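TL;DR need structure tokens for one chain.
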Amino acid sequence: MVVTHDMHTATKVADRIVMLYPPSRLKPDEPQIIFDGTPAQIERSTDSRVAQFVRGEAGERLMEMRKSGTI
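>> reply
TL;DR here they are.
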């Protein structure tokens, strides 16, 4: 098991990738696991949260976290 935010590493070493989402950002009863599949499948994910992270386009989320004092 490897825990990382580095998608390049994850797609090179993993047979399976699981992506969790912060509970505070989820709707009631929404599961925290937003992706569970192979590296090839994550590259084709249609979930905008997953796609944004995989492509390194999470800037909007980072700005939101900075404003809220999370980071």
